[in-house]
């Protein structure tokens, strides 16, 4: 790899060749720890090897707890314009999505680097929003390009376990009386259960907007002690305040109902004192109003 990376053409826009093979060996050894010192980032690295056995470059990725993956790549100039870099990066994106929970891909590059920009565009990357670019601390002469799973995606929490500490903070902040220091609930325990399986209740879901986690919900076997004869239940619904009013809640509900039907259930139930209007807009019907924990609670049922 030292010979590959000693190609001066690679550094037309930034960086410089490794000073020695020994330095590069130490650099690779550090990267092969596969995690940052604080454990919040996953470091992944691949070499690009041709069918002939020749090394041609590398692709690397840093996967954050948010589900964002920052990718970078280098390819020896004699292999440019042959589709090798595109194929290698495409394979890595598939790997990150399938096995590392990535929902947003990003690349930071010098604005003048037209070759790298063209490669990213060919793979469906687009210029990042200001909010997205801020996540990756781009320098003044750099731009960030991103590719996400779509404008809105709702996926099982079991595929995104690295988000559990983030969502735990949401739960504690939204329901301090239950999940706070003096409350009876245990957010970490509940979320671990929500992320344990996609096939057995409870099953949690997380919502993403342009690859950013913004909401959560869960499908549970039981929710209200007086109504254990009904199953399953939509529960633990939360959307970040900045993303409310954008149909995130409706998308989470739709994902819960769809998943319930895949598991063999015909309808889903929900008890709420605050989300009645959302449920009605989504076609749910009111069954009854009960007293629960000293306040009225309406039981809703999804459409068949």
Explain the overall architecture.
Strand 1 (41-49) and strand 2 (55-64) form a beta hairpin. Helix 6 (164-174) crosses helix 8. The protein has helices spanning 2-5, 21-31, 84-99, 114-122, 130-135, 164-174, 176-179, 187-194, 248-262, 276-281; strands spanning 41-49, 55-64, 68-75, 104-110, 126-127, 142-148, 152-156, 203-209, 212-220, 233-239, 269-272, 285-292, 295-301. It is of the alpha+beta class and 304 residues long. The chain has ten helices and 13 strands. It folds into two domains: 2-148, Gcn5-related N-acetyltransferase (GNAT) (Aminopeptidase, 3-Layer(aba) Sandwich), CATH 3.40.630.30; 152-301, Gcn5-related N-acetyltransferase (GNAT) (Aminopeptidase, 3-Layer(aba) Sandwich), CATH 3.40.630. A six-stranded mixed sheet has the order 1-2-3-4-6-5, with helices on one face. Strands 7-8-9-10 form a four-stranded antiparallel sheet, with helices on both faces.
CATH class of the largest domain: Alpha Beta
Oligomer classification: single chain
Report the major sheet.
6 strands, mixed
How do the helices and strands follow one another from N- to C-terminus? HHEEEHEHEHEEHHHEEEHEHEE
The coarse silhouette is elongated
Q: Order of strands in the sheet with the most strands?
A: 1-2-3-4-6-5
Low-confidence segments, given as residue ranges, are none
What's the gyration radius in Å?
23 Å
CATH topology of the largest domain: Aminopeptidase
Tally of helical runs: 10
Counted up, domains total: 2
Structural class: alpha+beta
Looking at the overall shape, the CATH architecture of the largest domain is 3-Layer(aba) Sandwich
Terminal-residue CA separation: 59 Å
Strand fraction equals: 25-35%
CATH superfamily label of the largest domain? Gcn5-related N-acetyltransferase (GNAT)
Name the average pLDDT: 92
Number of beta strands: 13
Name the helicity range.
Answer: 25-40%
